[in-house]
Amino acid sequence: MKMIIITFAFMFAAFCMKGQTAERFSYAAVIGTGIAMNEPAHTPFTVHVLGYYNISERFSAGVGTGLSFYEIMLIPLFADAKFALTQPGKFTPFVECGGGYAFATGANAHGGLFFNPSAGIQYALTNKMKLQFSAGYELQKLGRLKEYANEYITVGFMEKLNHNSISIKVGVVF
Questions:
Q1: What percentage of residues in the chain have a pLDDT greater than 90?
Q2: What pLDDT digit, counting tens, does each position of 131-154 carry?
Q3: Containing H/E element for 3?
Q4: Number of other residues whose CB lies within 10 A of the CB of residue 152
Q5: Positive or negative: CA dihedral 72, 131, 26, 96
Q6: How far apart are the C-alpha atoms of 9 and 55, rounded to whole Å?
Q7: What is the largest CA-CA distance in the chain?
Q8: Does pTM surpass 0.70?
Q9: Which of 95, 99, 135, 134 has the alpha carbon at shortest distance from 114?
Q10: DSSP state, 108?
């Protein structure tokens, strides 16, 4: 089984690689929102910056960070991989997947898993600058301290939240 997985990994790498790549690094700035799919529903607003290492003309991997606003502000730190489905041209469809951890900024909260697979299209504005639009799924886990008090008792507990949303993002790659 290991040999089959290794063989497919090498075939995928050979498919993605090309002899020379002119630009090794690219960067992206992305803003987005989402459509909440769970209760309690909080519509997210995200601002991310990413740095990519271009492994080939069609495949790149990198890291990203930014700000995500739910009921509290989170700072995600994640790895991201992007694959162009066709040879780069004026319009280039792609798939992308980011995953990592988001840190909470509030004193009574802690962050959690961040996962964001998506698909989209890039439009080449110039030779080095592209506008991109993507839609996908976003999962953000977090916890927050809640308190309940009445005249007899005061209780504190950690509430675990899973924010699931359909993400819609627009960005610039340069």
A1: 64
A2: 999 999 999 998 888 888 899 998
A3: helix 2-16
A4: 5
A5: positive
A6: 14
A7: 73
A8: yes
A9: 99
A10: T
Q: pLDDT band for 107, please (50, 70, 90 cuts).
A: confident
- Please tell me what DSSP assigns to residue 43: -
Euclidean distance between CA atoms 173 and 118, whole angstroms: 16
Tokens representing residue 34 in the block:
């989402």
CA-CA distance, 77 to 105, in Å (whole number)? 13
Alpha-carbon gap, residue 145 to 109, rounded angstroms: 6
Q: Is residue 15 pLDDT above 70, yes or no? A: no
Tokens of 132: 């991109």
pLDDT at residue 94 in the model:
98
- Unique residue bearing structure tokens 């989402």: 34
The residues, any chain, with a CB within 8 Å of residue 31's CB and separated by 6 or more, are 45, 46, 47, 48, 169, 170, 171
pLDDT at 11 over 70: no
Tokens representing 140 are 């953000």
Gap between the Cα atoms of 39 and 120, Å rounded: 27
Q: Which residue has the tokens 């008090």?
A: 149
Give pLDDT, residue 22: 54
Characterise 99 by phi-psi region: left (phi > 0), alpha (psi -120 to 50), beta (else).
beta
Distance CA 164, CA 141 (A): 9
